[in-house]
Amino acid sequence: MSLSQPITKNASLRTRPWMATVLIVVGIFAILFGLGSSIITGVANISFATVWNSIFHYDSSNEHHVIIQTLRMPRALAGALVGAAFAVAGAIMQGVTKNPIADTGLMGINAGAGFVLVLVFAFAPGLPFESIILYSFIGAGLGVGLVYGLAYFSKNGLTPLRLALAGAVVSSILSGISQAISLLFQINYDLAFWSAGGISTAEWFQVSVMMPWIVGGIVVAMILSRSITILSLGEEIAAGLGQKTRLVKGVAAVVVMVLAGASVSTVGGVGFVGLVVPHIVRFLVGVDYRWIIPCSAVMGGVLVVFADIGAKMIAMPYETPLGAIIAVIGVPFFLYLARKERREW
Amino acid sequence: MDIDLFSQKRKSRSVRLILLFAVLLLVGFVLSLNTGPYSIGPFEVLQTLLGEGSKKQSLVLFELRLPRMVIAVMIGAGLAVSGAILQGISRNGLSDPGILGISSGAGLAVLLFVSLYPATNMAPPFLMPFLALIGATATAAIIYMLAYKKGHGISPARLLLTGIAVGAGLSAISIILTLQLNPRNLEFVVTWQMGSLWGSNWKFVLALMPWMVILLPYVYRKANVLNLLSMNEQIAASLGVSLQRERLALLAGAVGLAASSVATGGGIGFIGLLGPHIARRLVGPQHQYMLPITALVGSLLVLTGDTIGRSIMPATEVPAGIVISLIGGPYFLYLLIRTKG
């Protein structure tokens, strides 16, 4: 945008709260519908009535009730949570770094978490999930630290292109080492499944450990959202308005780390949710992160829940990797962003 | 006169450097021959090469180490020169067959073959480079088309971003394929992806040799064109270079070199980035001088990476690609933050 134009005339800077409200309401209904559909789809054919009964008149001798309660419900819920977390993490990164192609997968954060998880599987197998998730945070923090450390030490900041390259290279180094370790410790199948991404193995227990972290992360993101909007206008402007930009950036980095780490520990290497969702949301609701963040959370949940239904159905009875399904949407979207004319690239 | 003197100086400096690197490569070669689980001293190596060694010594040297090292030297040169071409024609110092996704395209074709014919643990040596070439050419064509914009041509930045995006798509496909492999093939594919110089016997040397023997001199003959292309489109066009044709021919050369190297060596990254950069630092941007040094540096890097990988852990080999990415990755990141966008 050129500075000579009055800001209010620029359509892309308008906020559309009514649109955001519609998006959230429709999104919540879509998630509920998705959760229901996800629970009734699968190899065992289960009717909606059985689902209803399994919730309100649970019968542990009924095989279908057991499947619903122990496999399908946690899986569907995990999908919604992970999708929300990835999308919010992506939205925060795009806002704070003013980088339109920020995403936890593209920026090497997923690879960082994966690297530490491989270390855990190799050297401390059998660790409980409560601890694994903490290691996953450390790994995600490693990725965040590496990429943004590079941006910090570069001469005049990294352009989006250079950040993308840095993310790609950090990912390739970390996943190379992960592969070497996995070969050495004979866990290459686990790593292959991890990289493919999927929530078919999610259990209640995992959901219960992951949920507080993700909900907490999104709440903090909501509290930060006003500051992120200001920061997204530019660091000088934010500082001029009296914002403690370092504090905001620091807290934002921690939130990204927790959201990405928690999701990756459950779902594996799924990328592009954090790229696609915030862009579409921003296009619809405008540039105010007080609306972008909640809308991204809802739409991210919708995306992953439905993608996971796809993962179950495409090659039934086999699982299709969730990461690949989302890449089918994500890669063309990335290409579209790359084609858009941007002078600063 | 001054300019003549300057170019004279540069030439003699380049010749000296070429000789220096050739000697270094030779030393590296001998050292690498000594290294491995069964150690053979330099003197014994010489004896064995002259046909005076024991049976075991000559078996290890001639059948195991020598072909592997010849391959390391060839793919090092191939990848480095491929990177130099890509950097020249895209006028971007960050281009590299790995980063642009060309290597993953080559890899995917090989992976596709392994998963379609699971009984064969590996494709026949002579077929591999061709399979890889198909994959790499298709990928290069897709990236080129997607990055091309009518009226704007190809901007270096868009080319790189498109490469990253296509690379991400290819890796999603390759993950689906790897999940369906049986354990033996999975191990082969994973080791291959890490750049293990797995195809290390004379058959592979023979399969790779023609590619290098034809393509490297061809590219060298085009050094002048590369000089022009890497300067500025307008200048090059005004000097009578038929831009589009020369660029495509050189791109084909780069793809051929990268594909054949990847087919034999596996996913070794960063050589196409490191080789040209080091060479340019030493002798400047003139491709006549820079290309030979690029090739030698690339060979030296892969040979050293492989030697280190074979010697850090005695029980298991660390693939050369991992060793190189541990050196090359940080160097790339350093370049990213030190050079101007």
Automatic annotation (TrEMBL), chain A:
Belongs to the binding-protein-dependent transport system permease family. FecCD subfamily. One of its GO terms (molecular function) is transmembrane transporter activity. It comes from Brevibacillus formosus. Signal peptide: none annotated. Coiled coil: none annotated. It is a multi-pass membrane protein. Keywords: Cell membrane, Membrane, Transmembrane, Transmembrane helix, Transport. PANTHER family: FE(3+) DICITRATE TRANSPORT SYSTEM PERMEASE PROTEIN FECC-RELATED, FERRIC ENTEROBACTIN TRANSPORT SYSTEM PERMEASE PROTEIN. Gene3D superfamilies: ABC transporter involved in vitamin B12 uptake, BtuC. The keyword Hydrolase does not apply. This is Ferrichrome ABC transporter permease. It is found in: Cell membrane. InterPro entries: ABC_BtuC-like (IPR037294), ABC_transptr_permease_BtuC (IPR000522). The chain crosses the membrane at residues 21-52, 72-93, 105-126, 132-151, 163-185, 205-224, 251-277, 289-309, 321-338. GO terms for biological process: siderophore-iron import into cell. GO terms for cellular component: plasma membrane. It comes from the Bacteria. The lineage of its organism: Bacteria, Bacillati, Bacillota, Bacilli, Bacillales. The keyword Transmembrane helix applies. SUPFAM superfamilies: ABC transporter involved in vitamin B12 uptake, BtuC.
TrEMBL record, chain B:
The keyword Membrane applies. Keywords: Cell membrane, Membrane, Transmembrane, Transmembrane helix, Transport. One of its GO terms (biological process) is siderophore-iron import into cell. It is a multi-pass membrane protein. One of its GO terms (cellular component) is plasma membrane. InterPro entries: ABC_BtuC-like, ABC_transptr_permease_BtuC. It comes from the Bacteria. It is found in: Cell membrane. The chain crosses the membrane at residues 66-86, 98-120, 126-147, 159-181, 201-220, 248-274, 289-308, 320-337. One of its GO terms (molecular function) is transmembrane transporter activity. Pfam families: FecCD (PF01032). PANTHER family: FERRIC ENTEROBACTIN TRANSPORT SYSTEM PERMEASE PROTEIN, IRON(3+)-HYDROXAMATE IMPORT SYSTEM PERMEASE PROTEIN FHUG. Belongs to the binding-protein-dependent transport system permease family. FecCD subfamily. This is Iron ABC transporter permease. It comes from Brevibacillus formosus.
